[in-house]
Amino acid sequence: MKILNTALGIAAYCMLSMTNLSATSMTDDEITKADYKKLIKMLTPLAGSTPAQWRVVWSGDTTTTATVSWSTAVSGKKHTLHYGTKPFGTDVAKYENHLECKKSGAYSINAKEAETTKTAFYHHVPMTGLMPNTKYYFVMESDGEFSRQLYFKTCPKAENFKLLVGGDSRSGLASRCRMNLRLAKELKEKPEIVALNHGGDYIGSGHSWRQWRQWLSHHELTTLEDGRVLPIIPTRGNHDGGPIFFEVFNLDKMTDKHSFWHTISLGEDVQIITLDTNYSAKGPQEKWLTKQLSTIRPKTTWLLTNYHRPLYPAVKSPAGQTAVFVPLFEKYNVDLALESDGHCIKRTVPIRDGKKDASGVVYIGEGGLGVGQYRPKEDLWYLKNGGYVSRGHHVMQLSFSKDALNIETILMNGKVTDTHTLKPRAK
Ligand SMILES: [Fe+2]
To answer: H/E element holding 247?
Structure first.
């Protein structure tokens, strides 16, 4: 039966891959009008022990480590990742590496949903000792059921690359899927894109397994037809409360209050410090942030911070952490701050001491990966006279080199609506 299921799954996938709905064969206009019901029929069903809902998670040194995670509908007994630098399709014995799953468990489900919905099971395989700027092919196996061959690329050590930055995919399911197609198309057209930094608010209620299940399945739309997977850098938004966020991304809580912060290194020249705006800035987070900034700033060309609630917002009030975070960002000369939550498009002027200053910090983002867009406050001083503000589903693209950091805001239809360039700070 298992062999039959696998064969049927492969046949069904091949048929679907030939449809016009494959992400990167769609025109920009078709992406903006893609039929949600048809799209979700393309996705790998969460059924039996078939590996589904795969993701590659980056949460440390992205040149040498990554975690491959997936879901199954049943708990299963044996979960293995077959991987290596050469493609062998589903001839899994030929891969260089075979790692048993390090952590498996049931996604948390609340009592109300449990009355009508079954939970599913996560499986995480952290990989270490990878080579930079290298394609890693992999096949997931759960109790004899195999995924198709997928692959991702580790981050280069010093070469130029691009990073996608976005947030707020929590509602607007059709728009979320269309934005996932947009991400896939960007990845296909620009292979130098390494990952998506998701700024949080993945779903409406972090305690809802049903909503996470949808998000996880929709994420498959970012995978290319040739099997390339877009790694994801996680951030915790105010809608991502509860344990499932940690189960999805295989993360450790920083305190007993489900908080999460971490530093990502993208090669030798780029570091991103991710903070948690659901948790007090004072105390452990401030102490940790100060140490990170003072250690990293002297050694890196591009120092970014990333968190969910804006410190210089275009829609709502400033996050409660503003009085702690902003002076530290300015003291240690952060180059760029990534924000979400406001549901609009925003790029501030460089800010220092509460005013425009060429040596200051630029704040971008506010989230457009699916959620409905708000009307921003266009008259705020930090959005005028060189800043940018608008609304619309979008993702931002950061292009890193030693000499410049280019920022582009890309709309769902592929059009670039804002560009800006930062120069590295004098050392
Ligand atoms: Fe939010």
So the answer is: helix 244-249
Length of the chain: 427
Ion ligand 1, residue ranges at CB < 5 A: 201, 237-238, 341
Mean pLDDT, the chain, integer: 93
Q: Do residues 338 and 346 touch, judged by C-beta distance below 8 A? A: no
Residue whose C-alpha is closest to residue 343's, from 239, 230, 219: 239
Q: How far is the CA of 88 from the centre of ligand 1 (A)?
A: 42
The rounded Å distance from CA 46 to ligand 1 centre is: 28
**What pLDDT digit, counting tens, does each position of 104-118 carry?**
999 999 999 999 999
Q: Give the strand pairing for 351-352 and 355-356.
A: antiparallel
- For residue 297, the number of C-alpha atoms closer than 13 Å in the C-beta half-sphere is 19
| pLDDT tens string 313-352 | 999 999 999 999 999 999 999 999 999 999 999 999 999 9
- Asked whether 43 and 218 are in contact (CB, 8 A), the reply is yes
- How many of the other CB atoms lie within 10 Å of CB of 77? 10
- Report d(CA 23, CA 26) in Å as an integer: 6
Tokens found for residue 257: 């209050």
Q: Answer whether 0.85 is exceeded by the pTM.
A: yes
- The pLDDT tens digits for 147-163 are 999 999 999 999 999 99
Domains, the chain, with CATH or none = 161-422 (3.60.21.10)
pLDDT confidence of residue 23: 63
Please give the distance, rounded to the nearest whole angstrom, from the Cα atom of residue 365 to the centre of ligand 1: 12
d(CA 317, ligand 1 centre) in Å = 12
* pLDDT of 17 higher than 50: no
* CA–CA gap between residue 99 and residue 80 (Å, rounded): 6
CA of 39 from ligand 1 middle (Å) equals 26
Helix axes 173-189, 209-218, angle to 10 degrees: 30
End-to-end CA distance of the chain: 64
